């Protein structure tokens, strides 16, 4: 085996990314405080060619050197929008036909592995603050909450890790079956 060089990876340019079909998922960050987590989520959103990232409340926005440190330029390729309140973002998404999926441990949550994506549906994945999680007023507006199974002594993942797990699980039908990827 030989490790591939960057020029062998077949990556598309930022302009090609912007013009290419997207996986119909928008990530909503509800008061995520760490700039590194924000940058990491931009990078994951780029990797799975997601539609956009919505930054809400105290979540910082590009341009910022600490976001760029982990995003590595994905903040330039992935479309993003800022909202003062997360509820504003999710009301916009709901009115545009997105199914709102909170990623949180709640009563009657759906285990991630049991959730079936529908390639005809648009999704909004809502991830919360590193300490408090997704705000209850946001959960109250969600169509469903998904929970990542965990088997150790901790009850949570880092928000950027949660994003990677959930976004792969939701986007893989499009990524693995589309000729556009």
Automatic annotation (TrEMBL):
Record CDD domains: SpoU-like
Record's keyword terms, sorted: Methyltransferase, Transferase
GO molecular function: RNA binding; RNA methyltransferase activity
Gene Ontology CC terms: cytosol
Cell membrane among keywords: no
Family annotation (SUPFAM superfamilies): alpha/beta knot
A single GO BP: RNA processing
Domain tRNA/rRNA methyltransferase SpoU type: 25-168
PANTHER family: 23S RRNA (GUANOSINE-2'-O-)-METHYLTRANSFERASE RLMB
Full protein name: SpoU rRNA methylase family protein
Species of origin: Marinilabilia salmonicolor
């Amino acid at each position: 085996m030989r490790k591939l060089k960057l020029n062998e990876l077949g990556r598309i340019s930022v302009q090609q990314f912007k013009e290419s079909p997207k996986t119909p998922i928008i990530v909503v960050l509800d008061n995520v405080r760490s700039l590194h987590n924000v940058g990491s989520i931009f990078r994951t959103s780029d990797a799975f060619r997601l539609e956009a990232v919505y930054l809400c409340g105290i979540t910082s926005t590009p341009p910022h050197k600490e976001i760029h440190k982990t995003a590595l330029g994905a903040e330039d390729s992935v479309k993003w929008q800022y909202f003062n309140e997360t509820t504003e973002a999710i009301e916009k998404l709901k009115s545009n036909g997105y199914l709102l999926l909170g990623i949180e441990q709640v009563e009657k949550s759906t285990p991630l592995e049991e959730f079936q994506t529908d390639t005809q549906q648009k999704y909004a994945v809502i991830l919360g603050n590193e300490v408090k999680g997704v705000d209850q007023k946001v959960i109250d507006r969600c169509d469903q909450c998904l929970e990542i199974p965990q088997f150790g002594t901790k009850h949570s993942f880092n928000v950027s890790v949660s994003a990677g797990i959930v976004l792969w699980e939701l986007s893989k039908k499009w990524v693995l079956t589309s000729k556009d990827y």
